[in-house]
Structure formats: C-alpha cells, structure tokens
Amino acid sequence: MKSFVVLAPQTAASLAPALRQRATLHGTQVDFALVEQRDADFDAQDPKHAHSVLVQVRAFSCNYREKARFLDIAQKPAGKGYLVLGSEFAGTVLKTGPAVHHLRVGDRVCGNGSVEPGQDQPGLTTQRASSERQVHHQDKLFRLPDSMSLVEGAAFSIGAQTAYSMVRRLPAEGMQHVAITAAASNTSLFAIRALLARGCQVHALTTSASLEPHLRKLGVQHCCVLGRDGSYPHLLQNHLANLGLSGFDAVLDPFSDIYLRKLLPFVRRFGSYVTCGVYQQFAEQQPDAFVHEGLTVAEVFSLLIRKSISLVGNNLGTTADLEQAVADYAAGRLHINLDTVVTDGDLGRFIERSYLAPDRLGKVVFDYGEPAATPRPAQQEAALA
C-alpha cells in the first residue's frame, strides 16, 4: 500500500531525486515521497479485531497542524526513516470484525474525530490518513451519504465537525451578528455555511482583500479586510458603526493567538468568543508583528470579566455535529470547498497547493483512484528498510 510521508534527512539523501519531492517551508528543506508499505494486518477472527474495520483509502488531505510534525523530523540531520502524514481520508470498507454492527463491506466512510464524555478513543481517527489500507474501530468511522463523493469526503470531517461544534456552543438566543476570523481558513469556511444555515448575519474578517469576492459568493453579508499595519481597530470600529452595531454578538476564531487580543474589545457585553486553535504551532514561523498586537493577557481577562463575555475552547466535536453537517450537505445548505484535487499522482502539486499557496481557498485532496499494484523501486526498498 502507498503512503504520503516526510523523509528524515539521511533517508532522503539515500534516494534518487526522482523518488522524492523537495520543498522549503519556513526556511527548512523538507523531502516528501509516496512510498510503498506493507499492507495493514487485519484478521477478522482475531478477538482484537472484533469491533474493527479494514478500509481501502481512495483519497486523503492534510491539515495545517501537520507542519509541526514534518518540520520536527526534517530538522534532525542524523534522522533516518520517515513519518506518515495525513489527517483526513475517505474510502470503502473491505472487511469487518464480527462485532461490527453499523458498517458493511462496500460502505463509503470517512473518519469520525468525535470527542465526547466517556469515550474510549476521543479525537482524530488517525494521523496517518494517507495510508491506503487502515484498520479502525467502528466508532471512529462515519458512513458518507451517497451524494458525497470520496474526494469530498476526504475534505469534510475535521472542518465540518469542528465548525458545527463551535456553532452549537453559541447561546441559542441573541447571536444574530457573528464574526468569523481567518475567514478563508478551512474551519472558517465550514463555519460560515453553518451560521448561514442557522440564519445568522456573518461578518467575515480577513487580512486578504483578494478573497473578499470569494467570501461574498459563499453568501457572506459583511466583509471586513483587516490591515496588518495596526489599522485594524479603526477598520473594525468603522465596520460596526456603518451597520449601527455596538459590537459583535459572538466571534468564532480558529487562531486565538492572533485574534483574541484584537477582537475582544469589539464583542458586546454578554457576548461569546469561541476558539478552536492557535496559529503559531511551531517555533520556525517567522515573527509577525500583527500576531502579537492587541491587549495584554491581563487586559484580556479584565475585559472578559467586566463585559461578562463567555470564552469557550473547542476541540473537534461530537458525532451529532458530524451528522448535522451531513444533513445540511444533503439539504444543499453546506458546500465543501475544494481548492485542488490531485488525480495524476502529482505529489509536487499536492505539496505546493497544501502548504505554499497563499491564494488557496478550501482543501487540497490527493485522489488515489482505484488501487493498482505498483512495484516499489529497488533503491526505495533499500533506503526504507
């Protein structure tokens, strides 16, 4: 089976350039490859596989947080081996254990990253989503609707589950005007659709003026382009004043380290602020003055208290959140944004659009298509042994 991997420096050096793809990210040289691995072990008669499912992956995608993982291995000069990448996948069920009750051979599935009280395996289904054959507990898989393609399924679960969880955690009343930061990020694109389906007025905040037309096509009523030169307070004040608003009812924010300190003054009293992540996840990122602008930590907590603002941290979501997202998709209320689908094995194109393209809008999906037996080159076999 094939897997998309980042190669440790010594392993990369032993491979011919034709067998790897090199890219520079945050000043670090990183080597990627598609490698052949041994097929996943699955024995339906083994008690440990009673509740397990063998999946043939047809398509996968990567997420922003994976940068930290592959930069870590790429920066160890003496390192050997490789790290399998991929956060989301979609495929078909090949085999099931005898205790599997809600999936059958031939079902089309994606990962279910549910995080719920009392759950045995909370969180992402896998961090090796690019591996063509995978074994998972039945509860960590979700059946795709017939109307959703496998390529769409490989770009769906994490963003949809997270966004719908964030929207669910807003108060049921008084949330008419909701701001979404980093509006072109994958999570925010899903959140925009979820809020529109709920009837909210969406205020898309972005630092890229070129993305405003695309956001309006999604149905966003109000866009505010934030300058990166310290002008954001003035821009936000004008944005709210022009609409006759004293503040946002709520903010949904995938990058709290950038926006929390900037936006909190623009949230109304008794408003809500829901965040699901941070931007600077690895030390190699270049310092950015815009990231560090805003209130001090003491001022943040003082303002939260004085204005009775609810601050909510959110990690992924529940199975019910994923079900609601699928229901909206089936009803035509939720669209899956695909930036690029790589269908010809062009690994370089996949890497460039996933990690290096500033104009990317939506997920980049690698489509394996139908499985085929591809012999592994002898040089690759030796290097990876």
TrEMBL record:
Looking up InterPro entries in the UniProt record yields: ADH-like_N, ER, GroES-like_sf, NAD(P)-bd_dom_sf, Zn-ADH-like_protein
The UniProt entry, under Pfam families, shows: ADH_N (PF08240)
Q: Which residues form a coiled coil?
A: none
Query: Which top-rank group of organisms is this from?
Result: Bacteria
What sequence ranges are listed for the domain Enoyl reductase (ER)? 27-336
Q: Which SUPFAM superfamilies does the entry link to?
A: GroES-like, NAD(P)-binding Rossmann-fold domains
Name of the molecule in the record: Enoyl reductase (ER) domain-containing protein
Source organism per UniProt: Chitinimonas prasina
